[in-house]
Amino acid sequence: MLNAFLIFTECRVEHTQDLINKKPIMQKLAMLLIALIVVSCSKKEQADFIVTNANIYTVNDNFETAQAFAVKDGKFLEVGSSEDILSKYEASKVEDANGQTIVPGFIDAHCHFLGLGFNQQAVDLVGTTSFEEVVQRVIDFQNKSDLKFISGRGWDQNDWDIKKFPSNKLLNGLFPNTPIVLTRIDGHAILCNQAALDLGNVTINSKIDGGEVVIENGELTGVLIDNAESLVLNYWPEVTNEDIVNALLAAQKICFSYGLTTVDDAGLSIDAIELVDSLQQSGDLKIRVYAMASASKKNLDYFIEKGIIKTDRLNVRSFKFYADGALGSRGAMMREPYSDKPGHYGLMVNDIATLEETAQRIANSEFQMNTHAIGDSANHAVLQTYKKALQGKPGRRWRVEHAQIISPEDFDLFDDIIPSVQPTHATSDMYWAEDRVGAERIKGGYAFKDLLNQYGKVALGTDFPVEHVSPFYTFYAAVARQDLKGYPEGGYQMENALTREETLKGMTIWAAYSNFEEHEKGSIETGKFADFIILDKNIMEVEASEIPNIKVIKTFVDGVKQ
Description:
alpha/beta, Diaminopimelate Epimerase, Chain A, domain 1, globular
């Protein structure tokens, strides 16, 4: 009743004057009432944390900016001007942002989070400019580590003067007894020395569906493409739970330093997902994970029976399926032969029957299907399969991961299918992609704007560690369509560049939408998780050439600095 009366009086005391003019007891009652009114009107709501004087891009429906917000219990309590927030709320911790830019925590819609962590335990081959440099890095690594098995990742023959797959002869001579597996940057080819090949008894007669054992002059080169990798990797020592834990924690540290607060890990095992959950429950792993379970029969059986797993930090409601290989290793499946390898069409990692059977099974569940498709043939097959499996089931938010080379007539099929693309692939591949597919087919390559126009949203990621983990490289590649050296002048196929607003949405709210999480993250709005980052430059206004150099000053998850 008192609260109702206080609201009714609207904190005005003039209405008590008649009471004051009467008996002393009434005067005391009136003075007490005035005191209660004043206290009530001056009391502010308690928050845990307040940020003021910021340049906040909320990424709400109207893409509004704000100056301040209050956080309580890990969520945004209110967003507005500094004056409004400070007049309504108080907190023991108030941060003056001094005009710095704040955006929602970045969401990487397609990456290999666990793979990034494992890379910290292997030879880093990213950026090597020759095979000789690859070998030298292996030598240097082994001199420090002295391991019984050596792994490495990151080589790309397209970055070398001699742009052809390497041979293992040099490694055989240097490491005759130590098995070595060096994974190409995209993960779709490995180079094995003879000791590694011997683990799986690989010979020139070894064959496998959806894979290739590369042979030159009648001899093994040591290169195994796509499914052929299993001929050796099935005999590679299994990683321990301790290895996985260390990898996850190492990857988290790297991701937080770049402002990533949610990662979509594209292809995890049951054991890895359970370890993610355990580490999150214990508080050691604070980053949020949208886990795509690898679409093996074992995983399908397990998760479809178990159902969707959802906590504040973990979301398991999708399967990662592979249609084809990668363009760089000529494993992407094309409708016509490769322009630089006549008669070669690429590889379907899984046959059409398996694709259709898997799609139908997932369609009959509550889960999402996210399929790796790079070549125009693979994309065509996936889109047609999706349409058939989802007939009468609109809005399921199934995704095509990469959607790299699309036939002109297939763009329309993205009307109810989410394109999940990685902008830095365009600027990494542009040096040789046209050689692979020719001048005509490349027009349907890396067509982010065309895909956006079809679906209305694009989910943006990096595909790290295939590409660099930095989301600022992603942003720059999407907007400027140039590499870090500013090549090519004017940008690559700029008709498919995205605006800065579209790009920021693709890395926040649209990525959240692709994960069925747009109501809890992806924008700075009341009721959503207080995941945000403070930047040293205004990403929406700084010169495009400066975007890759932007630094994250602080990363917050649930309003807590990481």
